[in-house]
Write a structure and sequence with these properties.
Elements (H helix, E strand, L loop, with lengths): L5 E5 L8 H7 L6 H22 L11 E7 L4 E6 L6 H10 L5 H8 L8 H5 L10 E9 L8 E5 L4 E6 L6 E8 L9 H12 L5 E4 L2 E2 L16 H11 L8 E7 L5 E7 L6 H4 L3 E5 L2 E4 L14 E5 L16 H24 L1 H21 L1 H7 L5 E2 L5 E2 L1 H8 L10 E6 L6 H9 L4 E3 L5 H11 L3 E5 L5 H4 L12 H14 L6 E5 L8 E4 L2 H13 L13 E5 L3 H8 L3 H18 L5 H14 L1
Parallel strand pairs: 2-8, 12-14, 17-18, 17-19, 20-22
Antiparallel strand pairs: 1-6, 2-3, 3-7, 4-5, 4-7, 5-6, 8-9, 10-11, 11-14, 12-13, 15-16, 21-22
Helix pairs in contact: 2-6, 9-10, 9-11, 10-11, 10-14, 16-19, 18-19, 19-20
């Protein structure tokens, strides 16, 4: 039977050629064309499925599938589906009119911009992404509607199209792309397979390429959590991150009001490299991969998690690759923060030993959240743990009780002592423990910032490193020790050590300390130490790299060694002994290097 459809026409636009504009402005990455066309094919397949469930289609559904075929010789890529198909009138409506109904406005609004707003929603341009790579596109389609005639639409990238009847046995649509010379990179099976796996790995309709199905149509985030086992979650994690260690635990997100959101977030074993941990959350929209840049949807500290978020309610611009901040995004952001906080609180409450066992891995993440997110702090302050050098864990409130009696200074402030390196600061830790003081271990890259937050949030709490001052100054009490030295001896002692000090800018002072304290103690002001630690964690050491290191050399007036040095009559020996104990203090802080270290070793051999 001769076709009744035979039409030629011009696309209803007010510019000579919209396609160069599409090619230039529509997408930042041309590979997106395949995502758009496959997504459209999936939509068409799902529509026929829904129509059948509504009783509006009573034919055979068959196996719903999207096929992508490559013909290198013909230089074509074909995307086929057996979905709803289109009639001639629907092609006119959906292909000719919608895409170009606002062409003039589109051109005027976006010709000078690289960022294009929500153009897909306004102009229906998803199909036209094909022209980023094709010089000519054919549509061969047949509607599911009974008695429908197959239709062929052709457009070569100009404003002219041709619409005619054709032969097609089954319902559905074939989109045939005749690839342009400047896009022949896409005529490569490995390139196409990579794009399909990137964007279509979890599409809900089977995607076939080279006679193989490339996707998992039912990823675990689409399932009910009660139907899943731990093994299912671990297997999916391995699917996402094949070479990673098993995660510590996970959260299954599932909310349908006031927005729609599903997903699974995993808590990985964190390393000290924050940046290397990020960009491990993938954003999907109805199982189509969108991006792994989720900074607007997920708070910064939660980007250390791994996994998948899927939401059709997230507004996306034309390329579906950048998020626009709006009410839904903020609500989703807050929901994820709350959900993560609730999960951690639940584990802490139900299994504290298990929580403590994992804390060395998740502590970085929790502290990062406490520093950066006020709402998260409100939840996390009850389960964030402090670990001391003996390996015991405490909540903030528990620790206040532990140190209240012995580590409250004369002004009523609690002083929390900490070490950043147990081995290097061992002598200071031991001195503190002799006084009955507890010492926290705060040596991670984020702890310098975490300490600042603790002092801001906790009333009447000061946090000081064990080597920031001599012990009596770290926690000042009303009781003051008396020096056994006379004024003359004090002056003579100070003068002696000023003569042997390798760094003449060091501040030397004589203090009354306990008899069993070291004869010479070198300390660094807490603000200087903390500033340096914060610089190191931010990678900004060079900013203050040329500043002189400020430190204090405290001479223990009550040390028997100091008394022995003062009583030594041999001037040369006196200087050698003073230099020896000074270098010992330098050594305890890791500051003795080069010639000073060599001379110290030689002097030690001679003294022995």
């Amino acid at each position: 039977m001769e076709s009744v459809i035979q039409e030629k026409g011009s696309l209803s636009i007010h510019t000579e050629n919209i396609f160069p504009i599409i090619k230039k402005f529509l997408y930042s990455d041309h590979e997106i064309f395949l995502r758009e066309l496959v997504s459209n094919a999936v939509d068409a397949s799902q529509k026929i499925k829904k129509l059948a469930s509504y009783g509006e289609f009573d034919g055979e559904l068959g196996e719903l599938k999207v096929q992508v075929k490559l013909d290198k010789d013909a230089k074509t890529i074909t995307v086929s589906d057996n979905g709803v198909g289109m009639t001639a009138d629907e092609i006119k409506k959906y292909i000719n009119q919608i895409a170009f109904s606002g062409a003039t406005e589109f051109v005027e609004k976006y010709k000078d911009k690289g960022e294009n707003g929500n153009i897909i929603g306004n102009f229906g341009l998803g199909f036209y992404s094909a022209y980023m790579v094709a010089k000519n596109v054919e549509i061969i389609t047949k509607s599911f509607r009974e008695g429908s005639e197959a239709v062929r639409w052709v457009c070569d990238g100009s404003t002219e199209f041709e619409l005619s009847g054709t032969e097609k046995q089954s319902r559905g649509t074939d989109i045939i792309l005749h690839i342009a010379e400047d896009s022949e990179e896409f005529l490569d099976e490995f390139r196409l397979k990579g794009i399909l796996e990137k964007y279509g790995k979890f599409l809900p309709i089977s995607i076939e390429f080279e006679e193989k199905i490339i996707n998992n149509t039912e990823p675990i985030w689409t399932k009910n959590p009660s139907d899943l086992t731990d093994e299912d979650y671990l297997a999916f994690y391995k699917e996402l991150h094949p070479f990673s260690e098993d995660p510590l635990f996970w959260i299954h997100l599932n909310v349908d009001y006031p927005f729609n959101l599903t997903g699974v977030l995993y808590f990985p074993k964190l390393k000290n490299d924050f940046q290397g941990q990020k960009e491990k959350i993938q954003l999907y929209s109805r199982q189509v991969f969108i991006t792994d840049e989720v900074k607007d949807i997920v708070p910064d500290f939660l980007q250390l998690l791994h996994g998948v978020i899927d939401s059709p309610d997230i507004p996306l611009n034309v390329s579906r690759s950048y998020l626009q901040a709006d009410g839904n995004v903020k609500k989703i952001n807050g929901y994820i923060t709350r959900k993560v906080g609730d999960k951690l609180a639940e584990i802490f409450k139900n299994d504290r030993p298990g929580f403590e066992a994992k804390f060395d891995d998740i502590g970085l993440f929790i502290k990062y959240g406490i520093i950066s997110d006020e709402k998260f702090y409100d939840k996390a302050k009850d389960f964030c743990l402090l670990k001391n050098v003996d390996g015991k864990y405490f909540t903030f409130e528990e620790y206040k009780e532990v140190v209240k009696e012995n580590q409250t200074d004369k002004n009523g402030n609690q002083v929390w002592l900490y070490t950043t390196d147990e081995k290097k600061q061992d002598s200071f830790i031991i001195s503190s423990q002799k006084r009955g003081y507890d010492v926290l271990n705060l040596g991670s890259m984020i702890d310098s910032h975490f300490i600042n937050t603790l002092e801001q949030k906790l009333e009447k709490v000061n946090v000081k490193r064990v080597d920031a001052e001599t012990l009596d100054k770290l926690i000042e009490k009303d009781i003051q020790l008396e020096s056994i030295l006379s004024t003359e001896e004090t002056d003579a002692l100070k003068q002696l050590f000023e003569g042997v000090a390798s760094d003449k800018s060091a501040q030397i002072q004589v203090e009354a300390m306990p008899v069993d304290e070291l004869p010479v103690v070198i300390t660094f002001p807490e603000f200087m130490r903390r500033m340096m630690d914060m610089q190191a964690s931010s990678g900004q050491q060079a900013m203050f790299g040329n500043m002189p290191m400020m430190y204090t050399v405290s001479l223990n007036a009550n040390s028997p060694v100091i008394s022995k040095i003062l009583k030594t009559e041999d001037t040369t020996l006196k200087s050698a002994l003073a230099k020896q104990v000074y270098d010992l203090a330098m050594l305890s802080q890791g500051m003795l290097t080069g010639k000073d270290l060599t001379q110290f070793i030689q002097r030690s051999v001679e003294i022995i």
